[in-house]
Predict the structure.
Amino acid sequence: MDTSLTPSDSSPTTTPAATVRAGNGTRPGFGTLLAVDLWERFSFFGMTAILVLYLTASEARGGMGMAPQSATAIFAAYMSLTFMAGLPGGWLADRVLGARRAVLLGGVLITCGHAVLAVPVTGSLYAGLLLVVAGTGLVKPAMAAMVAGVSGEGEGRREAAFSLFYMCIQVSALIAPVVTGLLAERVAWHLGFAAAAVGMTAGLIQFALGLRRYGDVGARPPRPVPRPEAAAMLRRAGLATGAVSALLVVPASYGLLPLPLVLAVLGLTTVTLPFWYLRSLRRTHALGAAHKSRLAGFTALMAASAAFWMIFAQSGSVLSLFAERHTDRDLLGFDVPASWFQSVHPLFVLLGAPLFARLWLRAGPRVDVPVKFAGALIAAGLSFLLMAVAARLAEHGPVGPHWLLLVYLLYSCGEIALAPAGLALAATVAPPGSTSRLLAVNGLFGAVGVVVGGQLFRLTAVLSPATYFLLLGTFVLTIGTTVALGTPHLRRLLGGPAGPR
């Protein structure tokens, strides 16, 4: 899941047109932003492709020698934190830093995080991951605001700009695992992390050199907090961060605090946060019956979507381990690195997105948001039922790569259907002035699925992989079927002038 391109209701919209586009429809600075995002996503997808493999590799091979259950839980915690970091990061970009400085500061933090991971020093793992999380939380909302600013206000221009950025994300996701995976698995694990740092550094340099091309876009926060209040809030945030680091991160890094305890606290926080956030949103808005109804439908669909992301997010952890340990990766005498399988999904998205776009146009309003959610959940459930068969066959020896290819195909179809529909639903049902927060909630439910999936993999300590895949696949398939059967009711909840189509 990638929520980096969620348009914001706090994005700059008052910038003079002359500063964001030149004659003949060109957009100065748009190409630079495109390149920066390519590099940032390269660093992100490159690292996620090798993280679990590095954590589970033996110490003799330069890895951490962790059990698969612990490694997948750490991966899930990292992924969920990147989703949640967009909340404070977006607030800082909107109210304190401005989009430009948020991108620069976030990019520096990401680069430092990858650099820390590239140094084989005891205790560097969690510090490096947290630096990457903090930087991603700053970069992604700010980058979305910059894209919205330079794309202008013309008919369809903003939608076209975000669509192009989405496609570029898939290009990065396609290339990054190939580069970092080859370096990490064939040369040295830390060299793979270093490659991600080099990519982010290149993006930062390109962004800094192109600052003059953006005019006034992102130069200042759209709704700045008064300076004394901002300074006080930043001090409190710094103290809170220091306290968390001192009480949790540093002790966990040196084995002084049980890792399961830290992950349990994070998991509980992740699961409760989106529901608390929606409740607080309802309290701060005097909502009529129609808006309450739409928010109820939104909450139901978002809770269901967490089951999709629960399975989807295991691609970089559980399926990577399956590719490494139970898949025949011999291709004409070449042993394909396990991390390269992470490039299959974005390839399917690039090929399938235009076909699905045509399908949605032909189907019209019959295929609305509830139908797309149901289809995505059913596809995700079926993918794990396929994995149950593959895992059973793998008990007798490595299986062919076609099993993983079919699973990634189902994942891709599900993402193409659910991810854009979820963003559109959040923007549609948001109460006035709260679009950014509803878009953030969409990401929070993704984080719920990610962290729950990471914890559930611990069941493989007592269950066979085939049984694990069968249980999760059946569970998600049941949720998808329930959404499909409840489509008429969900349509009534989401209906009205602001209901999605």
